[in-house]
Design a protein that fits this description.
Number of domains: 1
Shape: globular
Helix content: 40-55%
Number of strands: 3
Main location: membrane
Number of helices: 13
Largest sheet: 3 strands, mixed
Protein name: HTTM-like domain-containing protein
Low-confidence stretches: 1-21, 300-314
Strand order of the largest sheet: 1-2-3
Radius of gyration: 23 Å
Organism: Geodermatophilus poikilotrophus
Structural class: mainly alpha
Strand content: under 5%
Subcellular location: Endomembrane system
Mean pLDDT: 85
Transmembrane segments: 43-63, 83-104, 111-131, 137-156, 163-185, 221-243, 250-283
Distance between the termini: 35 Å
Length: 314
Amino acid sequence: MSTTASPGPGATAAVPSSATRRTEWDWWFRPVPLARIAVFRTIAYLFVPVDVFLTTAWVRAHADVPTEWYAPLTIGRLLPLPTPTPAVVVVVQWALVLAALAAATGRAPRLLGTAVFLLYFEWMVIAMSYGKVDHDRIAYLVALAVLPTIGCVRWRDKRSSEAAGWAMAAVFVTVVLTYFLAAWAKMRFGGWDWATGATLARAIVRRGTVLSDWLLETPGLLVGAQWAMLALEFAAPLALLVWSARARVALVVFLVGFHLAVYASVAIIFLPHCVAILSILPWERLPEVPRRLRSPTGGERPAEVSPAGAAPPG
C-alpha cells in the first residue's frame, strides 16, 4: 500500500486536487461513452416530429382557442413568452420539427440542440397552459436540455466523457424522480384511498380494453395492483444503484414493459417518458452489432475506450 510522506517543519500541506475534492460527486460524473450520446441524441430528436404530429397533435388545436383562455404556467408568467395566437402556434410547431430533424443529423449540436430545447419548452407551455398538466414530459425535457452540452460526437466515437456521464445521470435521476414524485402526488391528493379505493376500476370503466375488462370482476386483484404500483414508485430511487450493462437492460425492459402493460389495459402511454428511459441503455454497442452479425466468430475484440480528448489507438 502506497503512503505519502508527511510535510516537514514549516512545509505547507498539499491542497487536495479537484478530483479529490469531487470524490463525493463521482457518481454524477462517471464517464460514459460518447457513442451512447450520439445514438440516444438521434433517437431523442427524431421523436420530436412523432410527438408533435401524433402524441400531442392536440396542441395544434390551441391555435384556434381564444387567447383569453390562455392561463400560462408559473414559468410562462415569469418569462416573457408570447401569447399562443394562431401564428405563434404554427411557427413554433414547424420551427420545432425542422430544428429537430436538423439536430438529428449531428450537425451544429450546441446551436441546433439548444434551439430544439427552447422550442419544445415553449411547445409544452402552450400545451399545458389550458388546465391540463402532464407529468410524463419532464425527463424528456431534461434530456433535450442536457444533450447540447456534449458537443460533436459520432456513433462510433470510442472516447468516454465525464460531461456525457453527467448528462445521462441527470436524465436517469429525472426518470426515477418522475416515479417517486408520482407516488408522492398520489398520497398528497388521494391519500390512502388511492391504494384502497377503485382507482384502477374507474380507469378500466372509462378506458378499458378487451385485455383488462375481465379485471372488473376481481376487484381484490385491482386493489393489490394499486398497492404494488405505489410500492414500486416509492422504491424507484433504488434503480440508481443499477450500473452493470445487463442490469440496466433488464431495468429498461421492466420499465418499458410496465408502460406497455398500462397501455394494453387502459390505453394510456407515456411515450416521451419512455424515450427518456432509453437513455439508460448502453447504446455504444449498437454500431458494433452489424459487424458482429457478419462475423462467424462474433467479431474482433472491441477496442479499448480512450479517455475524453485522447486520440484513438492507431
